[in-house]
Amino acid sequence: MRPERAIVRRSGGNWTLQATLLRYGLGPVAGVDEAGRGACAGPLVVASCVLRPGDAKRLDGLTDSKLLSPAAREEFYALIMRRALDHAVIVIPPHEVDRRGVHIANIEGMRRAVARLAEPPGYVLTDGFPVRGFGLPALAVPKGDMVAACVAAASVLAKVTRDRIMVELDAEFPQYGFAEHKGYCTPVHDAAMTEHGPSPVHRYSFVNVRAAVRSAVELPAGLVHNGLLPVGSADAEVGGGSSQ
Q: Most buried residue, 27, 45, 74, 168, by CB count within 10 Å?
């Protein structure tokens, strides 16, 4: 006999999916999400998170980290760190993103984030696209960081961790404005790369970064930033990623 079909209604809020899985004995439920997939500088950060079933009121308002103000993200980050049953954060450096490609690095990061949990979850929810290789039942949830609270929590952990890293990198490389745009592709960021050349924390597999390498090498030698772009490096390409 087939088990009774579970019905999940979105009107029940972003804790409904987790509650339904728990009710059918499929917990604990881990949410997984990443931050920095589309950035052309800085690391890719992936987080997994298992929330306490009774924390819906304490985490009221938790949603996709991109929809929260920086102050709200910090508040939720602190609360999640205190209240979560389990969590893990994986930081994937730019050179690994270049070597493996953004998508492969992201998927591998998700697997590592789930494997790093203290106890294997009963079920894994991912944001948007399916991921194989967890060795556990998993479900891809469209707009998961808005629909499932545990995915939203993972998105907050990943986003806050990465933003803090980018602020630290801004102090090391102030000419790029990392604290403002967090390494994403903006006109200001592109202009800074054209003027100074990319830094060691840029992703050289991205089209706009490679273009900036060529532009910097074509400039007079005195304008190439701190020797980071030696003559002859313009045609070097690492990996096969894109700026998408």
A: 45
Q: Which residue has the tokens 């088990």?
A: 3
Residues 6 or more apart whose Cβ sits within 8 Å of residue 142: 128
Residue-wise pLDDT for 114-143, tens only, equals 999 999 999 999 998 999 999 999 999 998
**Into how many domains does the chain fold?**
2
Same domain? For 160 and 217 the reply is no
Could you read off the pLDDT of 212-244 as tens digits, one per residue? 988 766 544 433 333 333 333 332 222 223 332
In a domain, 8, yes or no: no
- Measured CA angle at 32 (ends 129, 165), to 5 deg: 115
Same domain, 68 and 131: yes
Name residue, tokens 């993972």.
154
For residues 66 and 159, the answer to whether their CB atoms sit within 8 Å is: yes
